[in-house]
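Side project, low priority. Logging it here so it doesn't get lost.
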Amino acid sequence: MKEEVMDKAIKKALKEFKEEEREEKKKKVLHNTKLLLRNFNNLKTHSDKAKYDISEIDIEAENGDDRAYILSIRRSKLRTLIMVSHIEMAMSELKENKIRSGSLEQYRALEMFYIEKKSYGEIRDKLNCGQNTRECKIVCVNY
């Protein structure tokens, strides 16, 4: 009898722990997504305006310290290009989904806030929505 009670208590504690872990993971993903969206313009500008082409650098001709530095720059540029590409792809897919579902205003609100750096007031004015409408709430509350 005591073992059954202990087993139930352990299972309940594990279930609660896993749920909390899932929630924390969701929060972290959402936080990272917001961070990428907030910094998207900077990342894009950085990757577009780099003054070199990573394939043009001859790392074999460099000494050890310079070679490590160049490889680090190359990896950083490549990661930035990949992030920008993934964000652009995700934004495109999101836009298509919102068009299909008839809620393009939600996408526009997100785009205006993160990409165009519009204020909540500007978004409300442009989309002709009040503070309590769904489109504006999505941006104001969730993002």
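Brief comment: The helical segments are 2-38, 40-48, 64-100, 104-114, 120-127, 134-142.
Revisit when time allows.
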